[in-house]
Amino acid sequence: MSALRPADVRHEVDNLLGRYAELADARDADAVAELLARADVHFAGTTITGRDAIGRHYGHLFETAPISRHLITNVIVDAQQDRADFRCRYSRWQIDPTAQLLAIGDYAGTCRTGESSYFLASFTVTRSWQAES
């Protein structure tokens, strides 16, 4: 993949984050696992690697998850020659039967260049606050 302008790198990272949010909202563990297949995923003090392990992890999370929407804000991207480091904020809202804030936190990670696009090489989820169950 040829070098991209910083704005193009930002666009690639935004799309990956948006895709993650859509797949998590759809509770599609297989698709999340495909998106994160090449990443080291850090979540709640554990590191998960490999498509199958990531799929199992998210499948377990989605079993009891309410219908929700992720909102991603404050995206900051540091573009390098062959990678892009990012960080952002997220909030997760339950949307059925009424809107209720479930969690807020941060995503951080690294995207690397593939043959035709960027892919997630590391992805860290840090919860700052979570609603009581």
Notes on the structure:
The chain has 133 residues and is of the alpha+beta class. It has one domain (6-130): Nuclear Transport Factor 2, Chain: A, CATH 3.10.450.50. It has 3 helices and 6 strands. The chain has a 6-stranded mixed beta sheet, covered by helices on one side. A hairpin with a 4-residue loop joins strand 5 and strand 6. Helix 2 runs antiparallel to helix 3. The longest helix has 20 residues, at 6-25. The protein is globular. The relative contact order is 0.20. The mean pLDDT is 95.
List segments where confidence is low: pLDDT < 50 over at least 5 consecutive residues: none
Percent helix: 25-40%
Average residue-wise pLDDT? 95
H/I helix tally: 3
SS-based class: alpha+beta
Series of H and E elements = HHEEHEEEE
In whole angstroms, how far apart are the ends? Answer: 46 Å
Question: What number of structural domains do the residues give?
Answer: 1
Rg calculated over all Cα atoms: 15 Å
Shape: globular
CATH architecture: Roll
Say what the CATH topology is: Nuclear Transport Factor 2, Chain: A
> Got a strand count?
6
Cross-sheet strand order for the largest sheet = 2-1-6-5-4-3
Regarding quaternary structure, what we see is single chain
